[in-house]
Amino acid sequence: MDEATDLIVVRYGAVRRLLPRPKSFKEAIQTVQEQFKCNFALLFDARLKVAGENTLTEQQPVTKTNWTAVAPQISVLLVRQAPPSEIKKEKKPDTPTQGKKAHTKTIVLSPKARVLGTKLVEPKIPVAIRLNDGRTFKKRFSVRLSKPLASIFAEFAELVGEDRKELRFHSNGQRLDDKSTLKSFNPRLGRNEEARITAAKVLCVTLRGRKTTMNFKLKSTERFRVLEESWAKALGLKVGKSSLRYKGHVLQSEDKPYHYGMDTGDVIDVVR
Protein backbone atom coordinates (compact mmCIF):
# COMPACT_ATOMS: atom_id res chain seq x y z
CA MET A 1 0.00 0.00 0.00
CA ASP A 2 1.26 3.44 -0.88
CA GLU A 3 2.64 5.33 2.17
CA ALA A 4 0.63 8.42 1.25
CA THR A 5 -2.63 6.50 1.62
CA ASP A 6 -1.64 4.38 4.66
CA LEU A 7 -3.49 6.40 7.26
CA ILE A 8 -4.89 5.58 10.71
CA VAL A 9 -7.17 7.38 13.12
CA VAL A 10 -5.34 8.74 16.18
CA ARG A 11 -7.62 9.71 19.05
CA TYR A 12 -6.77 11.70 22.17
CA GLY A 13 -9.81 12.36 24.35
CA ALA A 14 -12.54 13.76 22.11
CA VAL A 15 -10.06 14.85 19.40
CA ARG A 16 -9.54 12.58 16.38
CA ARG A 17 -7.06 13.05 13.57
CA LEU A 18 -6.25 11.07 10.44
CA LEU A 19 -2.47 10.64 10.40
CA PRO A 20 0.14 8.52 8.59
CA ARG A 21 0.79 5.17 10.22
CA PRO A 22 3.93 5.47 12.43
CA LYS A 23 6.76 3.15 11.43
CA SER A 24 7.94 2.60 15.01
CA PHE A 25 6.80 3.01 18.60
CA LYS A 26 9.18 5.93 19.01
CA GLU A 27 7.74 7.65 15.94
CA ALA A 28 4.22 7.12 17.31
CA ILE A 29 5.16 8.97 20.51
CA GLN A 30 6.79 11.82 18.59
CA THR A 31 3.79 12.16 16.27
CA VAL A 32 1.30 12.31 19.14
CA GLN A 33 3.41 14.82 21.08
CA GLU A 34 3.62 17.09 18.01
CA GLN A 35 -0.03 16.80 16.98
CA PHE A 36 -1.67 16.99 20.42
CA LYS A 37 0.99 18.99 22.32
CA CYS A 38 1.37 16.25 24.93
CA ASN A 39 4.34 16.68 27.29
CA PHE A 40 3.64 13.77 29.63
CA ALA A 41 4.24 10.01 29.62
CA LEU A 42 2.00 8.28 27.07
CA LEU A 43 0.24 4.92 26.86
CA PHE A 44 -1.42 3.48 23.76
CA ASP A 45 -4.43 1.28 23.13
CA ALA A 46 -5.47 0.20 19.65
CA ARG A 47 -8.36 -1.29 17.73
CA LEU A 48 -7.10 -3.65 15.05
CA LYS A 49 -8.64 -4.41 11.68
CA VAL A 50 -9.70 -8.06 11.36
CA ALA A 51 -8.17 -9.64 8.23
CA GLY A 52 -10.73 -10.34 5.50
CA GLU A 53 -13.53 -8.57 7.42
CA ASN A 54 -14.76 -5.03 7.71
CA THR A 55 -14.75 -5.08 11.52
CA LEU A 56 -12.45 -3.95 14.33
CA THR A 57 -11.32 -5.77 17.46
CA GLU A 58 -11.87 -4.53 21.00
CA GLN A 59 -9.21 -2.06 22.11
CA GLN A 60 -6.03 -3.64 23.46
CA PRO A 61 -2.77 -2.28 24.89
CA VAL A 62 0.03 -1.44 22.47
CA THR A 63 3.57 -1.31 23.83
CA LYS A 64 7.07 -1.05 22.49
CA THR A 65 7.32 -4.82 22.81
CA ASN A 66 4.33 -5.74 20.63
CA TRP A 67 4.37 -2.73 18.29
CA THR A 68 6.05 -4.52 15.39
CA ALA A 69 3.49 -7.34 15.47
CA VAL A 70 0.31 -5.27 15.70
CA ALA A 71 1.29 -2.04 13.87
CA PRO A 72 0.14 -3.21 10.37
CA GLN A 73 -3.36 -4.05 11.70
CA ILE A 74 -3.88 -0.81 13.69
CA SER A 75 -6.93 1.08 12.47
CA VAL A 76 -7.53 3.33 15.49
CA LEU A 77 -4.78 4.37 17.93
CA LEU A 78 -6.05 5.65 21.29
CA VAL A 79 -3.77 7.86 23.36
CA ARG A 80 -4.00 8.18 27.14
CA GLN A 81 -1.86 9.61 29.90
CA ALA A 82 0.06 7.16 32.04
CA PRO A 83 -1.18 7.16 35.68
CA PRO A 84 1.30 8.37 38.37
CA SER A 85 2.10 4.81 39.48
CA GLU A 86 3.17 3.80 36.00
CA ILE A 87 5.14 6.99 35.44
CA LYS A 88 7.00 6.34 38.68
CA LYS A 89 7.85 2.82 37.58
CA GLU A 90 9.20 4.09 34.29
CA LYS A 91 11.40 6.77 35.87
CA LYS A 92 12.59 4.88 38.93
CA PRO A 93 13.69 1.25 38.62
CA ASP A 94 12.75 -1.14 41.42
CA THR A 95 16.38 -1.94 42.24
CA PRO A 96 19.18 0.66 42.54
CA THR A 97 22.11 0.64 40.12
CA GLN A 98 25.02 -1.43 41.35
CA GLY A 99 27.52 0.67 43.26
CA LYS A 100 25.02 3.49 43.96
CA LYS A 101 22.92 3.96 47.05
CA ALA A 102 19.16 4.21 46.68
CA HIS A 103 17.88 7.71 47.36
CA THR A 104 15.29 7.93 50.13
CA LYS A 105 13.39 11.13 50.79
CA THR A 106 12.81 12.07 54.42
CA ILE A 107 9.59 13.97 55.10
CA VAL A 108 9.92 16.47 57.94
CA LEU A 109 6.63 17.42 59.58
CA SER A 110 6.05 20.91 60.95
CA PRO A 111 5.13 21.27 64.66
CA LYS A 112 1.53 21.97 63.66
CA ALA A 113 1.41 18.85 61.48
CA ARG A 114 2.81 16.77 64.34
CA VAL A 115 0.09 18.08 66.65
CA LEU A 116 -2.61 17.31 64.09
CA GLY A 117 -1.21 13.84 63.65
CA THR A 118 -1.32 13.33 67.40
CA LYS A 119 -4.93 14.40 67.51
CA LEU A 120 -5.89 11.78 64.97
CA VAL A 121 -4.67 8.90 67.10
CA GLU A 122 -5.32 10.10 70.66
CA PRO A 123 -8.77 9.55 72.15
CA LYS A 124 -10.60 12.22 74.12
CA ILE A 125 -10.64 11.54 77.85
CA PRO A 126 -13.52 12.67 80.11
CA VAL A 127 -12.42 15.14 82.80
CA ALA A 128 -14.45 16.08 85.88
CA ILE A 129 -13.52 19.30 87.72
CA ARG A 130 -15.00 19.91 91.16
CA LEU A 131 -14.92 23.24 93.00
CA ASN A 132 -15.27 22.83 96.76
CA ASP A 133 -16.20 26.24 98.08
CA GLY A 134 -19.56 25.51 99.65
CA ARG A 135 -21.26 25.27 96.24
CA THR A 136 -19.61 21.96 95.30
CA PHE A 137 -19.81 22.90 91.63
CA LYS A 138 -18.89 20.08 89.24
CA LYS A 139 -18.44 20.21 85.47
CA ARG A 140 -17.39 17.54 82.96
CA PHE A 141 -15.14 18.20 79.97
CA SER A 142 -13.28 16.07 77.44
CA VAL A 143 -9.70 16.61 76.27
CA ARG A 144 -6.94 14.67 74.53
CA LEU A 145 -4.03 13.27 76.54
CA SER A 146 -1.39 15.59 75.05
CA LYS A 147 -3.45 18.79 74.91
CA PRO A 148 -2.66 21.47 77.54
CA LEU A 149 -5.46 21.95 80.07
CA ALA A 150 -5.45 25.77 79.80
CA SER A 151 -8.65 25.93 77.71
CA ILE A 152 -10.81 23.86 80.08
CA PHE A 153 -9.39 25.66 83.14
CA ALA A 154 -10.34 29.02 81.60
CA GLU A 155 -13.81 27.74 80.67
CA PHE A 156 -14.32 26.35 84.18
CA ALA A 157 -13.32 29.68 85.77
CA GLU A 158 -15.85 31.48 83.58
CA LEU A 159 -18.59 29.01 84.50
CA VAL A 160 -18.08 29.49 88.25
CA GLY A 161 -17.66 33.26 87.90
CA GLU A 162 -14.14 33.39 89.34
CA ASP A 163 -10.89 34.97 88.17
CA ARG A 164 -8.73 32.27 86.56
CA LYS A 165 -5.68 33.62 88.40
CA GLU A 166 -7.36 32.98 91.76
CA LEU A 167 -8.08 29.30 91.08
CA ARG A 168 -5.71 26.43 91.79
CA PHE A 169 -6.19 22.98 90.27
CA HIS A 170 -4.94 19.70 91.75
CA SER A 171 -5.18 15.99 91.01
CA ASN A 172 -4.01 13.30 93.41
CA GLY A 173 -2.05 15.88 95.39
CA GLN A 174 -0.25 17.24 92.31
CA ARG A 175 -0.74 20.87 91.33
CA LEU A 176 -1.67 21.48 87.70
CA ASP A 177 -1.02 24.62 85.67
CA ASP A 178 -2.14 25.75 82.21
CA LYS A 179 0.68 23.81 80.51
CA SER A 180 -0.15 20.55 82.28
CA THR A 181 -1.64 17.69 80.27
CA LEU A 182 -3.48 14.55 81.32
CA LYS A 183 -0.50 12.60 80.01
CA SER A 184 1.89 14.49 82.30
CA PHE A 185 0.22 13.42 85.54
CA ASN A 186 -1.68 10.26 84.56
CA PRO A 187 -0.42 8.78 81.26
CA ARG A 188 -2.27 5.48 81.77
CA LEU A 189 -5.75 6.95 81.46
CA GLY A 190 -7.94 4.98 79.07
CA ARG A 191 -10.75 6.16 76.80
CA ASN A 192 -13.45 5.15 79.29
CA GLU A 193 -11.66 6.36 82.44
CA GLU A 194 -12.45 9.72 84.00
CA ALA A 195 -9.74 12.13 85.13
CA ARG A 196 -10.71 13.89 88.35
CA ILE A 197 -9.44 17.39 89.16
CA THR A 198 -10.18 19.53 92.21
CA ALA A 199 -10.33 23.32 92.00
CA ALA A 200 -9.92 25.73 94.90
CA LYS A 201 -9.97 29.50 95.10
CA VAL A 202 -6.88 31.26 96.44
CA LEU A 203 -7.76 33.97 98.98
CA CYS A 204 -5.61 36.85 100.10
CA VAL A 205 -6.66 37.52 103.71
CA THR A 206 -5.37 39.88 106.36
CA LEU A 207 -4.43 38.70 109.84
CA ARG A 208 -4.70 41.54 112.32
CA GLY A 209 -3.07 41.31 115.74
CA ARG A 210 -2.78 43.86 118.51
CA LYS A 211 0.36 45.44 117.00
CA THR A 212 0.94 43.55 113.77
CA THR A 213 -0.99 43.19 110.53
CA MET A 214 0.08 40.71 107.84
CA ASN A 215 -1.35 39.39 104.58
CA PHE A 216 -1.43 35.68 103.74
CA LYS A 217 -2.58 33.59 100.82
CA LEU A 218 -4.79 30.64 101.59
CA LYS A 219 -6.82 28.27 99.45
CA SER A 220 -10.52 28.16 100.20
CA THR A 221 -10.17 24.43 100.94
CA GLU A 222 -7.15 24.68 103.25
CA ARG A 223 -7.53 24.34 107.01
CA PHE A 224 -6.99 27.36 109.25
CA ARG A 225 -4.22 25.39 110.93
CA VAL A 226 -2.01 26.40 107.99
CA LEU A 227 -2.78 30.06 108.70
CA GLU A 228 -2.07 29.65 112.42
CA GLU A 229 1.30 28.02 111.67
CA SER A 230 2.26 30.76 109.17
CA TRP A 231 1.39 33.51 111.69
CA ALA A 232 3.29 31.84 114.51
CA LYS A 233 6.36 31.23 112.32
CA ALA A 234 6.40 34.84 111.07
CA LEU A 235 6.35 36.23 114.64
CA GLY A 236 8.45 33.53 116.29
CA LEU A 237 5.56 32.29 118.45
CA LYS A 238 4.37 28.83 119.41
CA VAL A 239 1.36 27.45 117.60
CA GLY A 240 -1.76 27.42 119.80
CA LYS A 241 -0.90 30.54 121.81
CA SER A 242 -3.47 32.57 119.88
CA SER A 243 -6.86 32.06 118.25
CA LEU A 244 -8.43 33.35 115.05
CA ARG A 245 -11.75 35.17 114.96
CA TYR A 246 -13.86 36.18 111.99
CA LYS A 247 -17.06 38.21 112.29
CA GLY A 248 -17.58 37.04 115.86
CA HIS A 249 -16.83 33.37 115.10
CA VAL A 250 -13.89 31.55 116.68
CA LEU A 251 -12.17 29.70 113.83
CA GLN A 252 -11.20 26.13 114.64
CA SER A 253 -7.94 24.70 113.29
CA GLU A 254 -9.76 22.14 111.15
CA ASP A 255 -12.24 24.64 109.69
CA LYS A 256 -11.82 25.95 106.16
CA PRO A 257 -12.44 29.42 104.64
CA TYR A 258 -15.32 28.29 102.43
CA HIS A 259 -17.20 27.17 105.57
CA TYR A 260 -17.58 30.88 106.41
CA GLY A 261 -17.97 32.23 102.86
CA MET A 262 -14.65 34.07 103.02
CA ASP A 263 -13.32 36.01 100.06
CA THR A 264 -10.18 37.92 99.13
CA GLY A 265 -9.67 41.02 101.27
CA ASP A 266 -11.37 39.68 104.39
CA VAL A 267 -9.80 40.46 107.79
CA ILE A 268 -9.23 37.85 110.51
CA ASP A 269 -8.42 38.99 114.03
CA VAL A 270 -5.69 37.24 116.00
CA VAL A 271 -6.47 37.10 119.73
CA ARG A 272 -3.99 35.90 122.38
Q: Can you characterise this structure?
A:
The chain has 272 residues and is α+β, with helices and mostly antiparallel strands. The protein is built from 7 helices and 14 strands. It has helices spanning 25-36, 67-70, 84-91, 111-121, 150-160, 182-185, 224-235, and strands at 7-12, 15-20, 42-48, 60-62, 74-81, 124-131, 137-144, 167-171, 174-176, 195-208, 213-219, 243-246, 249-251, 267-271. Strands 6, 7, 8, 9, 10, 11, 12, 13 and 14 form a 9-stranded mixed beta sheet that branches. The N and C termini lie far apart (128 Å). Mean pLDDT is 80; it is low at 85-91.
What is the compact description of this entry?
The chain is α+β, with helices and mostly antiparallel strands. It has helices at residues 25-36, 67-70, 84-91, 111-121, 150-160, 182-185, 224-235, and strands at 7-12, 15-20, 42-48, 60-62, 74-81, 124-131, 137-144, 167-171, 174-176, 195-208, 213-219, 243-246, 249-251, 267-271.
Secondary structure: helix percent: 10-25%
Distance between the termini: 128 Å
Number of strands: 14
Rounded Rg? 41 Å
Order of helices and strands: EEHEEHEHHEEHEEHEEHEEE
* Strand composition percent: 25-35%
Stretches where pLDDT is under 50 for at least 5 consecutive residues are: 85-91
Number of helices: 7
What summary fits the major beta sheet? 9 strands, mixed
- Please state the overall shape, judged from the principal axes of the Cα atoms: rod-shaped
What structural category characterises the helix and strand content?
A: alpha+beta
Mean pLDDT rating: 80
